Amino acid sequence: MIVDAKSQSLEEMVYSTLEEEILSGELERGTSLGEIALAKRLGVSRTPIRGALHRLSEEGLVEISPNRGATVIGINATDLVDIYMLRERLEGLASSLAAARITKEELERLTETVELAEFYISKNDAEHLKELDTVFHSIIYRASGSRFLAGTLSELHRKIKSYRKRSLSVPGRVHKSENEHREILEAIKRGDAEMADRLTSLHVRRALDNMLTAIEK
To answer: Which residue range forms the structural domain that includes residue 149?
Structure first.
């Protein structure tokens, strides 16, 4: 049992490491994932490597073929459209729920996040803006009061992390995005669930358009 537990722990470590490297873009699409090389780099045997690669294959992040071994697939443009289609509907729902359920503390944090983002725009600090974008949406997810909705949206948000910075690189997008955040905040603050839903859905749709534009360049 101790050996099994250790093996499972190592597999989880390998899986988490490779998943993060794929989703962050560190391991690019088409990269070959040789078991021996991975085992040497991560300091483990090939057994947890195989287990982790199998799990990544089931998630569609890696392709395993008899002759070529494992190759990174990652998230492609089709996946992005699918993910954003889900986000558009679910984030709109989350914002509408937040308009009715948000606590005073959550509203204060949401307001602070928007104001801090405006400060970093003046400093042209893209890295902090990306972090604050995640914080802004995460607060709304939690404020929806739905644990399952929040969990689903957090996972979808995580899967596109390597692409989000590209969206913000489109000229003028940073300012527009923060203006949209401010409008969403005001709708939630007023308790206008319908407007919060509409503005958030439009915000996600525009983010996808910008991301696809950035990818095509």
So the answer is: 77-216
Say whether both 97 and 197 belong to one domain. yes
- Residue 121: partners with Cβ closer than 8 Å, 6 or more residues away: 129, 174, 175, 178
Task: Judge whether 99 and 192 are in contact, CB under 8 Å.
Answer: yes
Query: Would you say residue 20 has pLDDT above 60?
Result: yes
User: What are the beta bridge partners of residue 40?
Assistant: none
Q: How far apart are CA 196 and CA 67, in angstroms?
A: 51
Q: Give residue 62's identity as a one-letter amino acid code.
A: V
**CA dihedral sign of residues 47, 14, 45, 53:** positive
Same domain, 81 and 121: yes
Which tens digit of pLDDT belongs to each residue from 99-113? 999 999 999 999 999
Query: CA-to-CA distance for 7 and 197, rounded, in angstroms?
Result: 45
Asked whether 163 and 75 are in contact (CB, 8 A), the reply is yes
Q: Does residue 44 sit in the same domain as residue 123? A: no
Residues 60 and 63: their CA atoms lie apart, in Å, by: 7
Query: CA of 33: how far to CAs of 64, 85, 192, in Å?
Result: 9, 31, 49
3-class SS string, 153-178: HHHHHHHCHHHHHHHHCCCCHHHHHH
Whole-angstrom distance, CA of residue 85 vs CA of residue 81: 6
- Which pair of tokens denotes residue 36? 């021996």
* Mean pLDDT of all residues in 79-107: 96
Going by C-alpha positions, the residue among 10, 21, 83 that lies closest to residue 52 is 10
* pTM summary value: 0.79
